[in-house]
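User: Let's play a game. I give you a shape written as tokens, and you guess the letters that built it. Ready? Here's round one.
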């Protein structure tokens, strides 16, 4: 399709209107809890008088916006890859609007699982599920922590120091854009990133690992893909944080931590605990049940509250419902890792670079490959440093692909004390 074609003009009009309609639709900020709720809850908890927090949400009507979004869908033929990308993104925002209209109601879970899935969903290949992966990482973390337990105070870097370090490092990648780093006293999560700013939670401890995790995850994936998407000429909607791209976004960001060696076992443990906590909530556990579970699993009171709150954002606190977004971290990581390995085996590593051209899913990139090659979709303006080092990435992936052929369970019999001594280990 050439730029002068009527079809291109139709896509351009729909894309522009979609970007306009998406403005002001904010999922996490709409579902966030007042910062003082934590203080009141923990004070009552320590006195033995804890009860479910009382949370109310604004429940605006999105009827007009949904109607306009549905009108856009009428002009999109999903047989065309660009039309399908637009249609999926439009539908994603319709679902988000429905979720926000039902905040505080059990019905929000229907829309949450449509957007983010459930802990029981299968991973690539269909043989294992998110909850299986979560329990695997919890088992490994438990074995590690038996001999290497560190407390939060062992590595306590204040937000202001993290802010200073991040500002210095951002210029290594973003040579033509400036991203502000702010310390926010009202944040619930430790960090959040957009195209123009990164926010850090005040009055909390960060570890040395977390500094690098924030750079690789928030700055060099989330901020980077938002900037690259906004820089697109023909498909500006690639700059939107459409919830349907969340799994790939979080998977790519967590993969960045993995491939740069900045992830640690504590980080994997936190991610896994949230998935198990979501499963507990969906199966009837209330906020107090989930909080106790996280506390008994080794999290501090503050982190247990924050993790439980993430599970119940927008959901009734009495059990049976949950905000399931945190299931996407492990699911996305496994999907992205598998995709990178597949690209290596099929000589298509350029597809991996296309994931950074904006906010898109793995399926989008595969379907839109021709449109990247034609120049309709621009290559990424920025890439994280690890993605520019193709030789190192290829070596990592090649080792990963081959190492998967070795079955650990089959080594148990040969890895006795005597056999290891004979090998000179």
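Assistant: Ready! My guess for every position:
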């Amino acid at each position: 399709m050439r730029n002068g074609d009527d079809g291109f003009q139709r896509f351009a009009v729909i894309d522009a209107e979609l970007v306009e309609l998406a403005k002001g639709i904010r999922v996490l900020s709409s579902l966030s809890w007042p910062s003082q709720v934590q203080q009141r809850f923990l004070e009552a908890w320590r006195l033995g008088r804890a009860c479910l927090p009382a949370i109310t949400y604004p429940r605006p009507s999105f009827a007009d916006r949904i109607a306009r979004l549905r009108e856009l869908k009428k002009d999109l033929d999903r047989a065309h890859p660009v039309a399908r990308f637009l249609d999926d993104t439009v539908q994603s925002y319709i679902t988000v609007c429905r979720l926000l209209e039902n905040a505080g109601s059990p019905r929000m879970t229907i829309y949450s699982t449509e957007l983010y899935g459930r802990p029981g969903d299968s991973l690539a290949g269909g043989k294992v599920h998110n909850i299986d992966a979560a329990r695997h990482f919890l088992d490994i973390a438990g074995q590690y922590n038996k001999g290497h337990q560190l407390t939060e105070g062992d590595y306590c870097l204040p937000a202001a120091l993290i802010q200073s370090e991040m500002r210095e490092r951002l210029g290594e990648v973003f040579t033509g854009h400036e991203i502000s780093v702010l310390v926010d006293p009202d944040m619930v999560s430790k960090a959040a990133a957009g195209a123009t700013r990164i926010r850090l939670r005040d009055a909390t401890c960060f570890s040395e690992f977390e500094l690098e995790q924030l750079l690789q995850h928030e700055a060099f994936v989330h901020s980077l893909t938002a900037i690259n998407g906004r820089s697109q000429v023909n498909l500006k909607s690639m700059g939107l944080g459409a919830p349907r791209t969340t799994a790939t976004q979080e998977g790519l960001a967590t993969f960045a931590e993995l491939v740069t060696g900045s992830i640690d076992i504590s980080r994997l443990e936190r991610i896994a605990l949230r998935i198990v906590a979501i499963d507990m909530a969906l199966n009837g556990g209330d906020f107090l049940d989930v909080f106790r579970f996280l506390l008994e699993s080794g999290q501090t009171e503050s982190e247990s509250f924050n993790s439980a709150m993430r599970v119940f954002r927008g959901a009734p606190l009495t059990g049976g419902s949950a905000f399931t977004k945190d299931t996407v971290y492990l699911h996305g990581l496994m999907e992205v890792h598998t995709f990178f390995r597949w690209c290596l085996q099929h000589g298509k590593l350029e597809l991996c670079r296309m994931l950074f051209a904006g906010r898109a899913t793995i399926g989008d990139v595969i379907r839109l490959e021709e449109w990247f090659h034609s120049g309709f979709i621009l290559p990424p303006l920025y890439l994280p440093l690890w993605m520019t080092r193709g030789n190192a990435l290829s070596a990592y992936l090649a080792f990963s692909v081959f190492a998967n052929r070795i079955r650990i369970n089959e080594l148990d019999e040969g890895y006795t004390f005597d056999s290891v001594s004979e090998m000179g280990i």
